């Protein structure tokens, strides 16, 4: 099947837009590669420090500098259910790498926080910024220059994007991502949602709510709904950074252990010296980013990735924006319904065909780039497979030819909908995104008066006091990354759901986030620019008529232009958001962060002025690249990813 014309055209414009940044990025990758095995650049004192605590045999391997050294970067802690299984992974990885002829070292750990714990709490204001903190922690872990490749242990919301951003800044190192898998299925998601709404109405006690939540989140492993954590896993698969089918194998099983060992050994096989060099900076290219967006859309994944994928792309010198998401969404069919877009959880999705089935269907429909590099080499088709153990040996077979349950996953010829359900919204309120894959058609166009809130607490107090039993659009402002770190406003979902179920026409408009749990109530989120940056959402007054039209992509305050233009953005009262719970430590993030559409990032695109002149950068040398202008630079020895010499 030829590539779909929309996929082709969006990819082409991303390549053109990104060319100067991507070229600079690849030049730096080549420079780092030419410096040779990193241990060879270390002095004897440095190297002795690097293996002082190692067992004698591993120390000997590192001394000889002839066999690969693999870094383990882990986000383990035993408070997050998804990350608790990682406690035992380093020992398994070290053993597998030894068997493959290399050595693995635990290079460093990163923070890992759970949005499910911090929802509605001050700690949530650190959540988004934890992504870039994790990226920096990853860079610190790799800074010792002891390594030929790295494996990354992470699953949840900001953690996988942070690990990948950090990995991409060590572009010359091969990277293999190793998931831990989801917990087994607990309470049905529809029942969980019903109980939350009953609690929001005051019809259940806190004890009853806690008992229900404990039956939903009950063991080690990832939460089973299709939020950001499990969207991360889908994207790692389609970007070729996982072994095929690794995402949704439950923890503590023989198959999970076999996949972990095989992933570690694959890292050994793709180092530069092994002859099959697959650095992460070559794997994550423009086509891989487009594939990731397509996978997000076709599965109804987390809206958080309208920021995370932008930031990941920037780290690789690739520039994408919400127009790209919107245009791809128009061409990509919805092939999966996983809660909150349906009733099934990720275990049902995996049993019905899972990631391999989706990849195969999209490839056959011309909706994914097949000609990409993955950790298995050339071509995404190898990832249209599922793993299994036969006589204790790990093998892969082709993804199933038919869906195991078309209520959960469907072929491209019979999708749940013709588009991906993610829309760009624009108008005099700014630019935002909305996910409508779980919103019924009759709720996708709302015309109602605004009620303005400066926090989610203000909204919840008004709901508890019975003041919101009407048609309205909730405008929750000062929730962007500059204002308070852009916390998720998931606490609003049950209350808005109650009002909608009661027949009220309600919607949410905010410069904050709603996360992968965006559900049945229309929510225009990530409004950019945010109010604190002078965004027009700050001009809205209670009583203004708001049009939210998710079908046409319109987000408009129906206010006369002369009145609208004369309004000032109010001064926020944010002192309470700046201190306590560590928030003062993140002041620099709030001051430096980009807009949501730019990835809500605190780092920039690769500088354009440095280029590689390999004649001054011999292996083992320490001479920096000369600085040239873009116009007069010649890359004499180009990476394979550059098709022609660039002047």
Automatic annotation (TrEMBL):
Its cofactor is [4Fe-4S] cluster. Keywords: 4Fe-4S, Carbohydrate metabolism, Gluconate utilization, Iron, Iron-sulfur, Lyase, Metal-binding. Residues 613-647 are annotated as: Disordered. InterPro entries: 6-phosphgluc_deHydtase, Dihydro-acid_dehy_C, DiOHA_6PGluconate_deHydtase_CS, ILV_EDD_C, ILV_EDD_N, IlvD/EDD_N. It comes from the Bacteria. Residues 67-381 form the Dihydroxy-acid/6-phosphogluconate dehydratase N-terminal domain. The keyword Membrane does not apply. [4Fe-4S] cluster binds at residues 156, 223. It is an enzyme of class 4 (lyase). It catalyses: 6-phospho-D-gluconate = 2-dehydro-3-deoxy-6-phospho-D-gluconate + H2O. Pathway: Carbohydrate metabolism; Entner-Doudoroff pathway. Residues 407-600 form the Dihydroxy-acid/6-phosphogluconate dehydratase C-terminal domain. Pfam families: ILV_EDD_C, ILVD_EDD_N. Binds 1 [4Fe-4S] cluster. Signal peptide: none annotated. Its EC number is 4.2.1.12. Belongs to the IlvD/Edd family. Catalyzes the dehydration of 6-phospho-D-gluconate to 2-dehydro-3-deoxy-6-phospho-D-gluconate. This is Phosphogluconate dehydratase. The gene is edd.
């Amino acid at each position: 099947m030829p590539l779909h014309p929309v996929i082709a055209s969006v990819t082409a414009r991303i390549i053109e837009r990104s060319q100067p940044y991507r070229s600079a990025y690849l030049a730096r990758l080549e420079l780092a590669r030419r410096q040779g095995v990193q241990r060879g650049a270390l002095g004897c004192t440095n190297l002795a420090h690097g293996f002082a605590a190692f067992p004698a045999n591993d120390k000997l391997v590192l001394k000889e500098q002839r066999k690969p050294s693999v870094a383990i970067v882990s986000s383990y802690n035993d408070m997050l259910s998804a990350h608790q299984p990682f406690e035992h992974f380093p020992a398994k990885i070290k053993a597998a790498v030894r068997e493959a002829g290399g050595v693995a070292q635990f290079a460093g750990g990163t923070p890992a926080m759970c949005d499910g714990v911090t929802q509605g709490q001050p700690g949530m204001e650190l959540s988004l910024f934890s992504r870039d903190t994790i990226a920096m922690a990853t860079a610190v872990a790799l800074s010792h220059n002891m390594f030929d490749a790295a494996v990354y242990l992470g699953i949840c919301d900001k953690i996988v994007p942070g690990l990948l951003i950090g990995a991409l800044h060590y572009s010359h190192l091969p990277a293999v991502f190793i998931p831990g898998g989801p917990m087994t299925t607990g309470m049905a998601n529809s029942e969980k949602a019903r109980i939350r709404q009953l609690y929001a109405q005051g019809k259940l006690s806190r004890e009853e709510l806690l008992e229900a939540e404990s039956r939903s989140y009950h063991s080690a492993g990832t939460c089973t709904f299709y939020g950001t954590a499990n969207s991360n896993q889908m994207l790692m698969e389609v970007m070729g950074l996982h072994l095929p089918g690794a995402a949704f194998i439950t923890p503590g099983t023989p198959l999970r252990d076999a996949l972990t060992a095989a992933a570690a050994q694959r890292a050994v096989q793709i180092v530069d010296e092994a002859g099959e060099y697959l650095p992460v900076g070559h794997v994550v290219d423009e086509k891989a980013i487009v594939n990731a967006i397509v996978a997000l859309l076709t599965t109804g994944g987390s809206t958080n990735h309208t920021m995370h994928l932008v930031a990941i792309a920037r780290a690789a010198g690739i520039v994408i924006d919400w127009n790209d998401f919107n245009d791809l969404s128009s061409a990509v069919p919805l092939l999966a319904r996983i809660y909150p877009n349906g009733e099934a959880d990720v275990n049902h999705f995996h049993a019905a065909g899972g990631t391999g089935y989706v990849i195969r269907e999209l490839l056959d429909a011309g909706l994914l780039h097949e000609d990409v590099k993955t950790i298995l080499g050339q071509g995404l088709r190898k990832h249209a497979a599922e793993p299994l153990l036969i006589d204790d040996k790990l093998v892969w077979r082709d993804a199933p030819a038919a869906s195991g349950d078309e209520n959960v996953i469907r072929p491209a010829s019979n999708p749940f909908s013709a588009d991906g359900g993610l829309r760009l919204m624009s108008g005099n309120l700014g630019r935002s995104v909305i996910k409508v894959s779980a919103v019924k058609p009759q709720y996708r166009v709302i015309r109602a008066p605004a009620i303005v809130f400066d926090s989610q607490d203000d909204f919840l107090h008004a709901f508890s006091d019975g003041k919101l039993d009407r048609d309205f659009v909730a405008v929750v402002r000062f929730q962007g990354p500059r204002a308070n770190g852009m916390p998720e406003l998931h606490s609003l979902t049950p209350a808005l759901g109650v009002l909608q179920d009661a027949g009220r026409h309600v919607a949410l408009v905010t410069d904050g986030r709603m996360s992968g749990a965006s559900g049945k109530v229309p929510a225009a989120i990530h409004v950019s620019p945010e109010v604190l940056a002078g965004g027009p959402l700050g001009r809205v007054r209670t009583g203004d008529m708001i049009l939210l039209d998710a079908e046409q992509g319109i987000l408009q305050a129906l206010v006369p232009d002369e009145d609208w233009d004369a309004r000032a953005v109010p001064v926020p009262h944010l002192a309470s958001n700046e201190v306590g719970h560590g928030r003062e430590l993140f002041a620099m993030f709030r001051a430096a962060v980009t807009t949501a559409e730019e990835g809500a990032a605190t780092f920039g695109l690769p500088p354009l002025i440095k280029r590689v002149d390999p004649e001054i950068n011999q292996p083992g040398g320490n001479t920096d690249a000369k600085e040239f202008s873009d116009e007069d630079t010649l890359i004499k020895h180009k990476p394979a990813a550059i098709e022609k010499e660039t002047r």
